[in-house]
Amino acid sequence: MTDKKTSKPANDRAANDERPEEEAAPEAAEAGAQEPVSEADLGGNGGAAGGHTAVQASEAGAAEAPEAPEARVDPMAQLEADLAQFRDKHLRALAEIENVRRRGEKEKADALKYAATSFAKDILGVADNLRRAIEAVPDEAVEEGGPIKTLIEGVELTEKELLSIFERHGIKPIAAEGERFDHNLHQAMMEVPDTGKPSGTVVRVLQGGYTIHDRLLRPAMVGVAKGPSDGGGNKNGDGNGGDKGSKIDTSA
Fold first, then answer.
1. CATH of range 173-252; options 3.40.640.10, 3.40.50.880, 2.30.22.10, 3.40.50.970
2. What is the full DSSP assignment across 51-62?
3. Amino acid 69: pLDDT
4. Helix (H, G, I), strand (E, B) or coil at 232
């Protein structure tokens, strides 16, 4: 009897010794489920890697977040602004075209108006020669009559006809003798003293001048009266005396 009781507990202990791992595994699993895992349990490098991963994830989420919507532009306001800009450009283009048109018309009119300028300058020599021929004949020879008088009358008629043609084309002689010297119309060739005329007066015409419309075609070459010198007082040369008499602008 004693041997049978003793052998049963020994058999139970042997059975328990054969299953120690099977019973320990469920207990370890339950302990792991109940206790939280700390950063220390994960290890130093593992924890740092996990922290960086979380920061990168947050930055990626922030980058993917939609931006704030911009202020909406009113389509009608944009169209009105574009229309005003196009209208301004259109008006500027029309003004430029009008200016070009007017400038072209003026240039065309000037070309027609002054087209004969070069020809007129050349033909003025004919009028000069006719005048010289008339002045070369003495008055006594003309008064005696005969062929000389007839010749002079023909030359005078030719000169008159030529001047009439000049006038029809806007070419007119410049009044010079007895006029005040005008540097825009006259070209002083000499000063004539003791003429009894006021200083600066044209007293002699060496060659007649002409204008074509409102432009100078050729200045008149003239002699101008020189004022008397009083030997001392007036140095301004205003015609009342002075060392050098009157100062005349001879530029044309």
1. 2.30.22.10
2. HHHHHHHHHHHH
3. 55
4. coil
